[in-house]
Amino acid sequence: MTSLSDLPIRDELRGKQPYGAPEIEVPVRLNVNENPFGIPEAVVEDIVASLADAVRGAYRYPERDFPELRGALAGYLGHGVTAEQVWAANGSNEIMQQLLQAFGGPGRRLLSFPPSYSMYPIYAAGTQTEYVTGERGEDWVLSPELAVAAVERHRPTIVVLCKPNNPTGTALGLDVVEAVYEATAADNAIVIADEAYAEFDDTPSALTLLPGRPRLVVSRTMSKAFAFAGVRLGFLAADPAVIDAIRLVRLPYHLSVLTQAAAVAALRHAPEMLAQVDAIKAQRDRIVAELPALGYEPYPSASNFVLFGGVEEPKATFEALLAQGVLIRDVGIPHALRVTAGTPEETTAFLDALGRLRA
Ligand SMILES: *Cc1c(COP(=O)(O)O)cnc(C)c1O
Fold first, then answer.
1. Ligand 1 in contact with 149 (CB < 6 A)?
2. What are phi and psi of 91, to 5 degrees?
3. Which CATH number is 21-37+276-358's, of 3.90.950.20, 3.90.1150.10, 1.10.3720.10, 2.40.50.140?
4. Mean pLDDT per segment of 10 residues, for the chain of length 359 residues?
5. Which CATH topology does 41-270 take?
6. Which atom of ligand 1 is nearest to the CA of 222?
7. Given the CA of residue 234, which atom of ligand 1 is nearest to it?
8. Residue 166 CB–ligand 1 contact under 6 Å
């Protein structure tokens, strides 16, 4: 057997680790920010009926530019977004990869603000784009001043602002997006607002900033609030010229007929798919409210997960919770762990398990 280091792998990939949230079958899974309530049965049935039709047509290639799905996504987004401004791919991870393929590359720089989504440096490595970082302030808050300072220091080609930020849950003001957009005007850089958790966020979406900002891209996903992680459907809204750029790099027929049919059907039922968002936010707020009594320090969250500090040994606490059937996430931040807001029962199981560790 050969090892990875024996293969002619590209130099920038040597020694790298793949994305690797543990996949462990346990009763309470609160580690990858899914909607734990699942899909309502009536919606499942309508999606299945659409899939049956799609299978009958599956001897043909899918529509390359999927106008029906783009129209449905535009309708879902609102804010005056049109189908021509929308693009979709197999998860917002593929959206981001396509953006990096179109706008990154050798001699170009991707700027982000760690701790943030762990995939950003991986997209950069995969496209030979240099990965550069800026600082956050107290409690992980990113101010316009800190963001602009990083832009001026690095002169990036692409900036990705995680809004709200994963793994910290921190909200991001539109003033930061606007300031970064202005600061990157001279370099004509692409500014991406990654709004994977927008449906949980009470602050306004960067969609409101799209008019007149052709370099701004708002990235969304059906994986989180929409309870559709397994289908793999991410999307973006931007100026149609950005989509013309992506068409140059996307693989033909990248969205299968099954994916398109499932997503269009689910979007017909958007209110039902999103019906549990308030319940999830209530569990998030409950975690933030209850952790201090257990001796932990939760950070404010505009998302469906909570990062909490005050953890002496994150690895040991992670393992001790796992032994009680509760899977959360060690995101590599010293003395901190991240937990997804679950159903009321799952959240209770997490809080009880954590309480037993302190007892
Ligand atoms: C989960 C997540 C995504 C994307 O997930 P997909 O399932 O690929 O759509 C993107 N950005 C952030 C910050 C996330 O947490």
1. no
2. 90, 155
3. 3.90.1150.10
4. 87 82 90 96 97 97 96 98 98 98 98 97 95 98 98 98 98 98 98 98 98 98 97 98 98 97 98 96 98 97 98 97 96 97 98 90
5. Aspartate Aminotransferase; domain 2 (3.40.640)
6. 9
7. 9
8. yes
